[in-house]
Specification:
By secondary structure, this protein is of the alpha/beta class. The chain is elongated. The protein folds into 2 domains: 277 residues, Zn peptidases (Aminopeptidase, 3-Layer(aba) Sandwich), CATH 3.40.630.10; 110 residues, Alpha-Beta Plaits (2-Layer Sandwich), CATH 3.30.70.360. The chain is 34% helix and 25% strand. The relative contact order is 0.20.
Length: 399
């Protein structure tokens, strides 16, 4: 079976590269993936794969049945949305939608899943169970397409025994993957703050309540959440990336707006930290004569890879790729809405190496306007996903 999958992945590589290039050239923003969804639907129809569309707006789910289809159900997920970035790559498949780009590799995730579907579908008389494919919209923005698909009953027929997802990783070469059992990615929350004062002439500060000065104190004081209130053993990050005062050299504005992100690995501490930040902001700003609106948009939870499933997946991957092509990863403070799936079933979210050892232009990080991949990674992306699925379907161990 392993050699059959390898052979099929090799044979399908150019076709799947074509899928990836089409998707890369035609990116769509979160929850606006209408053409992407139609493209996937046409693929499913051509290959006689049953599906349901319109989940979370543009999302689709599809089913491939092997022998004894009621025995086990394994889910595979790919996200479809792109980012609001102007692409700077000079390639034939450069984005045709100016200001929108697949800079996070979701074109790779989707095309890899299409390739895995072709492999699994062609071998369906050789394995038992059912595979559910998830083509998910809106990973890049809250509330996240995963949470919406779950609310809209994407698993209403049956909860999968396990779910796999993969994500591009330009820090590893193509042909290599990385995994980590247990907590892997942080929760993420968005913070929106408005500090209100009383503006006026910059030469007469005594007649004003300066929201710029108050905001400067507030940004510094809020770092107590990390440095003095968080358990040092719990990774925690608080960062503000947007501050708008909109005054002038001699004008103190009436208000300052700022936006940031809060991330951690402990859900109980997460809730406590939210309240501490709000209380600190209210009291500090009031003590300096101002008022504050402090809003937290609760985002994705901590992504926890099921230890049993991920440990087994590592061994399956070593068997398929060779031990030298499977690496252990550390935790990441980035976040992923795949975390919602990990709350409902055993989940394994792993990294797909996409860098080229011969071409530095394929090594830019995600969310970069020059991000691109070594397309040989697609052979690993589709082949390994199919192999992990069949191994898990065949496993006598429950997770």
């Amino acid at each position: 079976m392993k050699e059959k999958i390898r052979q099929l992945a090799s044979q399908l590589l150019q076709e799947v590269i074509g899928y990836r290039r089409h998707l890369h050239a035609n990116p769509e923003l979160s929850f606006q993936e209408f053409n992407t969804s139609a493209y996937i639907e046409a693929f499913l129809i051509r290959n006689n794969i049953s599906y349901r569309k319109g989940i979370a707006g543009t999302g689709l789910t599809a089913f491939i049945e092997g022998k004894n289809p009621e025995s086990k159900l394994i889910a595979l997920r790919a996200d479809m949305d792109a980012l609001p970035i102007v692409e700077e790559n000079n390639v034939e498949y450069k984005s045709k939608n100016n200001g929108v780009m697949h800079a996070c590799g979701h074109d790779v995730h989707t095309s890899s899943l299409l390739g895995a579907a072709l492999i699994l579908n062609s071998l369906r008389t050789h394995w038992e169970g059912t595979v559910q494919l998830l083509f998910q919209p809106g990973e890049e923005v809250l509330p996240g397409g995963a949470s919406v698909m779950l609310k809209e009953g994407v698993f209403e027929h049956k909860m999968p025994e396990a779910i796999f997802g993969q994500h591009v990783y330009p820090e590893l070469p193509a042909g290599t993957i990385g995994l980590k059992p247990g907590p892997y990615m942080a929760s993420t929350d968005e913070i929106y703050v408005t500090v209100k004062g009383r503006g006026g002439h910059g030469a007469k500060p005594d007649r004003n309540i300066d929201p710029v000065l108050i905001t400067a104190h507030l940004i510094t004081a809020l770092q107590q959440v990390v440095s003095r209130w968080a358990n040092p053993a719990t990774p925690t990050v608080l960062s503000f990336g947007k501050v708008i005062a909109n005054g002038a050299t001699n004008i103190i504005p009436n208000e300052v707006k700022m936006e940031g992100t809060f991330r951690t690995f402990n859900e109980e501490w997460r809730v406590e930290a939210h309240q501490r930040m709000k209380d600190l902001a209210t009291n500090l700003v009031k003590s300096m004569g101002g008022e504050v609106e402090f809003r937290i948009e609760v985002g994705y939870p901590v992504l926890k890879n099921d230890s049993s499933l991920t440990t087994a997946a590592k061994q399956f991957a070593i068997d398929y790729l060779g031990e030298e092509h499977v690496v252990d990863l550390d935790i990441r403070m980035t976040a992923e809405d795949f975390a919602y799936f990990s709350q409902y079933m055993p989940a394994c979210f792993y990294r797909l190496g996409t860098a080229s050892p011969k071409d530095d232009s394929k090594s830019y990080g995600v969310h970069n306007s020059k991000f691109d991949i070594d397309e040989s990674a697609l052979e690993t992306g589709m082949g390994l996903m199919a192999w992990l699925t069949i191994c898990q379907l065949s496993s006598k161990e429950s997770v």
